[in-house]
Structure formats: C-alpha cells, structure tokens
C-alpha cells in the first residue's frame, strides 16, 4: 500500500497557525512524524485560509526539504499554486490533483511531464460529483485518454473515484468500490488507484472504525494507494493486515513490525 500522509494541511489549526507564523519547527516535526509512521509521500496543502498560497506552498516545500528527501504531493485545486511549488521542488513529486475538465488536463498533464511528477486524477468534473460507477468510469477514461494523447505515462497516473461520506451517500459505497476495480481495465498498462480516505467518515460517528473497514474493503477491490493519517496506528495495522491476507506480504508472527522496518 502506497501511503500519502495527509497531515500537512492548513485546514488543521496547528498547521494553519504554523504557516501563518512561518514556524518551520511544527511543519518539520509533522513531516518527520509521518515518515516515521510509514508515509511514502507527504501531501502539502496551504489550506483555505492561506493569504498567499503561491508563496506559502514554496515555503512549505523548502522547510520540509530541509529535513527529509521523502517525495511530496503538491495539493491544490489551483494549477498556479501547484506550479509555484514545482519551481522549488528537489524531491520526487506528485501533483494532487487534476479533474476530468479539459482545461485542467491541458494545464496539469504538461506540468507533470515537465517535472517528472506522478499525477492524481479525480473522477469529477465541473458538471458535478458522479452519481454511479458508470459516470466515474467515463470521467476516468477521459483522464486516461488525455494522458495517453499527451504522452504522459499511464502507470504514473493515480485515479481517484471520489469517496463520499457514508452518512450522506451510503448507496454509492458499492459503486465507489467497484469503480476502483474497474479503473484497472481502462488501459494497458493500467492506471493506479487512490482514495482520500477520511472523506468516507466525514460527519459520522466512529470515524476510525469506518475508515478502517472502508480501507480494508478497498484494498480487496485492488486499491493501490490512500491519502490518510499514517500516525493512526490501528488504521495502518488494518492496511498491512489486509495486504497480508491477500498474500501481498509474507506472514511471520511479527509481520506488523517486519513491514514497518522495510
């Protein structure tokens, strides 16, 4: 399981305050804590309260790169913010994210090619949130086709089916899981799949339990990656164990410890 740590986000009070005060200690401790907990990539997002996201994203990139060479995911709905972060990137990088809208694809696919970045593609467009599996597949296929046409390697593309909160979209959960499986047959080589996990439990009680169960089910449907809190030990244990049961990890009595030492 490819883990994208979600915690460096200005929507979290402590991180938002650190960005505003330019307190790099808080950011660096958060980065290193996530890496230690198992994050393969660190997602960085200035958050909605950022007064100057073009400079804030660069500051975040630079202070994180002072303490780790872990890959970074530049997270913004604004292509100009992502491009600003790419200008100071030294680590390997992921772009989070493009929608299926043509204007976004025409901006972000060339940027991903230029900076040799992996790319997250959201199965959503300006027309709104998809309401079933077929709509998700149509949007995902459009993203894959654009990547192929523009010479971006599809194996570096991560498709997100758009996970919705179970408390308002319970009827869509099966479609979301089935979309994860069917995204794999859109092309050869297949794109990878990713979810923003915390969305599934937004506004619900027992958030940790909902996250763990959805993640293990998504892994069984072929999920490759997730944006989540790697410092949630029970969640990480569930992901590791799900892969063990699917024979993706070698069993031993201390398999959790062994996985974390890899």
Keywords:
8-stranded parallel β-barrel; TIM Barrel; alpha/beta; 11 helices; 16% strand; 262 residues
Condensed summary:
This protein has 262 residues and is α/β, with parallel strands linked by helices.
Description:
The chain is α/β, with parallel strands linked by helices and 262 residues long. The chain has a single domain (2-260), classed as TIM Barrel (Alpha-Beta Barrel), CATH 3.20.20.20. Helix content is 47%, strand content 16%. The protein is built from 11 helices and 8 strands. It has an 8-stranded parallel beta barrel with strand order 1-2-3-4-5-6-7-8, surrounded by 5 helices. The radius of gyration is 18 Å and the shape is globular. The model has no long low-confidence stretch (mean pLDDT 97).
Largest sheet: 8 strands, parallel, barrel
Shape: globular
CATH fold-type name: TIM Barrel
The CATH homologous superfamily is named: Dihydropteroate synthase-like
Distance from first to last alpha carbon: 12 Å
What is the level-2 CATH architecture name? Alpha-Beta Barrel
What is the helix content? 40-55%
- Helix/strand-derived category reads alpha/beta
How do the strands line up in the largest sheet? 1-2-3-4-5-6-7-8
Average pLDDT level: 97
Task: Report the portion of residues in β strands.
Answer: 15-25%
Number of strands: 8
Q: Tell me the domain tally.
A: 1
Helical stretch tally: 11
């Amino acid at each position: 399981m490819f883990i994208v740590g979600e915690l460096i986000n200005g929507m979290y009070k402590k991180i938002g305050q650190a960005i505003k005060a330019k307190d790099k200690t808080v950011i660096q401790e958060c980065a290193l804590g996530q890496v230690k907990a198992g994050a393969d990539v660190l997602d960085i997002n200035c958050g909605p309260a950022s007064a100057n996201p073009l400079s804030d994203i660069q500051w975040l990139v630079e202070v994180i790169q002072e303490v780790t060479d872990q890959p970074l995911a530049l997270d913004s709905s604004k292509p100009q913010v992502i491009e600003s972060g790419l200008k100071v990137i030294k680590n390997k990088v992921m772009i989070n994210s493009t929608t299926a809208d043509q204007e976004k694809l025409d901006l972000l696919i060339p940027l991903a090619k230029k900076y040799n970045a992996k790319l997250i593609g959201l199965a959503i467009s300006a027309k709104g949130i998809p309401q079933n599996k077929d709509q998700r597949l149509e949007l995902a296929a459009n993203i894959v086709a654009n990547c192929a046409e523009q010479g971006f390697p599809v194996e570096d593309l991560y498709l997100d089916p758009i996970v919705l909160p179970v408390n308002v979209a319970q009827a869509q959960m099966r479609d979301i899981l089935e979309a994860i499986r069917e995204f794999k047959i859109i092309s050869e080589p297949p794109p990878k799949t990713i979810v923003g996990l915390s969305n599934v439990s937004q506004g619900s009680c027992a958030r940790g339990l909902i996250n763990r169960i959805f993640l293990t089910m998504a892994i069984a449907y072929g999920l490759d990656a997730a944006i989540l809190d790697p410092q949630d030990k029970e969640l990480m244990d569930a992901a590791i164990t799900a892969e063990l049961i699917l024979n993706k990890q070698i069993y031993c009595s201390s398999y959790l410890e062994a996985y974390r030492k890899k």
